Amino acid sequence: MASRKIVFVKSNSFLDVLVHLGIVIALTTLIVMVLFSSILPSTTNHGETVTVPDLTGRKVEELKRFLESRDLTYEVKDSTYSRRHRDRPGTILLQSPEPGAKVKRFRKIYVTVTPKNAPRVKMPKLIDVPFDMAERTLKNADLDLGKITYKPFLGENVIMEQFYKGKKIQPNTYIPKGSKIDLVVGDGLGEKEFRMPDLVLMPLDEAEQLLKGYELLVGNITYVYSSKRELGTVIRQNPAVFIGKKRKGVKKGGPMDDRKRTLVRAGELVDLWVVGNPAPKAKKNGGKEDKDPLEYLDTINIRKYDEIKNYKKRKLDKDKKDDPKKTEEPAKKDSTK
Question: In what order do the strands lie in the sheet with 234-238?
């Protein structure tokens, strides 16, 4: 039976040990270099990167062919509503990695797209609401303002009706975000036409009350300082009562006056010309300027209706003070006699 022999390699010197150690280190370094320069790059595509393109604004249906040609893939990560792209469902809004990033081939790009069906919101109540407020309400609800139609209505710029796709829509009805809402708005005028009332030669306060009764509005008041009529008297109006000029010798509004009457609607403005006072310099009394303008009618600076009313009250109070007998009530007769 053959005997086993163990052979020991004896190193004759410390130099031999260093030589063997150097050989081992060199072989290890060579193996590592081959591994990282040849084997790993072939399995991990090391050094082969591509630039991520900008996908925002594209349709998700276009991504497969577009990215495959660039050795990339994609996955839809989320969907979110966008007013800007509400009419384009499936549009790319966000992406990760971002455009311009360097990634390895066949990297997956995660995208966020607009939904196919927009989220639904409640239709707000706009009836009897002023137009500017209704416009803000629609915007806050992510709804769009559609067609605006004006109709006769005393509430100027007030919403009368609201429509969606040609049909009246009730408040709290669910509709998609971005829907267009058509509105019917009041023009501030009544539906029925009627004859313009005659205000000429009326006191201003009576003319204002008459206009209020007809639901007409007082427009500009112009004061005329050259008329001999009583202060506060209406001497002209616009619109006039009749259309055109009156013929000479024909009585205004008489049987021979064949002019057409002016027709108006509630809510229209009526401008008035009212007698005022020219307010010249105060007259002098005994070499001194008169301090009480009530003594001279033509020295009163009356420009507005409030001043006319104030003047009349002060004039009445002055008359009572000067002649108290005029304002005293007659003594009651004694019924017992």
Answer: 217-224, 269-275, 234-238
Label residue 300 exposed, middle or buried (CB < 10 Å: 0-12, 13-18, 19+). Answer: buried
Domains of the chain: 49-113 (3.30.10.20), 120-186 (3.30.10.20), 193-322 (3.30.10.20)
Peptide bond just before 171 cis, omega within 30 deg = no
Tell me: cis bond preceding 239? Omega within 30 of 0 counts.
yes
DSSP-based three-state secondary structure for 187: coil
Report which DSSP code applies to 250: P
Burial code (b: 16+ CB inside 10 Å, e: under 16) for 218-255 equals eeebebeeebeeebbbbeebeebbbeeeeeeeeeeeee
SS3 313: helix
Per-residue pLDDT of the chain in tens (337 residues, 90 and over written 9): 555 555 444 555 667 677 777 787 888 887 777 666 665 555 555 557 889 999 998 998 888 888 988 889 999 998 888 878 777 888 999 999 999 999 998 999 999 998 888 889 999 999 999 999 999 999 999 999 999 999 988 888 999 999 999 999 999 999 999 899 999 999 988 888 999 999 999 999 999 999 999 989 999 999 888 888 998 999 999 999 999 887 888 877 777 778 899 999 998 999 999 998 765 544 555 545 544 444 434 333 444 555 666 666 766 776 677 666 554 444 444 444 3
Rounded Cα–Cα distance for residues 236 and 224 (Å): 10
